[in-house]
Write a structure and sequence with these properties.
alpha+beta; single chain; 8 strands; two-stranded antiparallel ribbon
């Protein structure tokens, strides 16, 4: 216990955890802010990008990231896909509104009808893409990346349902309970 207090400062936060991205070590908070910036065009969230029931008007990138990583199935409450081109919004079958913000499911449903188009533009050199193509590919890349972020802590989430009585007994749980890789 005493050793821990020497190694971990009392003001240590999740955002201070060092991670490596593209060969560089950076704080988790910096990583989260950069991810949010790529999708939402800002480094923190403001309403209406997140539900009003959170009791705040602004949400930090690290709080957003931790929430989507630990609760990936609830990540649709965040409307972080900022699409400012009405032509792109229309091609995804979305409703154009003043906020220009959409959630993961809305984007995924819209992209399902565009998969052949996305496959075609993926092989075209970027210099030859028109702005519409670039924006569609950017949205596609962002939603894939968002999915990766949502499940980046999946080893900590109880996703493995143990039905077998012998296995459940061997690891000390009741059949039908779920565990994480971390628990194993």
């Amino acid at each position: 216990m005493i050793l821990g207090s020497f190694l971990i400062p009392s003001d240590f936060e999740f955002g201070d955890i060092p991670i490596q991205e593209n060969g560089r070590v950076k704080p988790l908070d910096t990583f989260a802010r950069n991810q949010l910036l790529a999708m939402y065009s800002k480094r923190s969230l403001k309403t209406p990008a997140f539900p009003n029931n959170l009791g705040t008007k602004k949400l930090s990138a690290i709080d957003w990231f931790i929430d989507i990583a630990l609760n990936p199935n609830d990540a649709d409450k965040y409307r972080v896909f900022n699409i400012r081109n009405p032509e792109v919004v229309g091609s995804l079958g979305l409703k154009w509104d003043i906020d220009h913000l959409y959630n993961r499911t809305e984007i995924l449903i819209g992209l399902q009808h565009q998969l052949d188009y996305i496959a075609k533009i993926q092989i075209i050199p970027e210099a030859e893409l028109i702005p519409f193509d670039r924006q569609m590919f950017h949205i596609y890349s962002n939603v894939i990346h968002f999915q990766e972020l949502c499940f980046s802590f999946s080893c900590l989430i109880d996703l493995i349902k143990i039905e077998d009585k012998e296995i459940a007994e061997a690891i000390g749980i009741i059949p039908g309970e779920s565990i994480s890789y971390y628990d194993v």
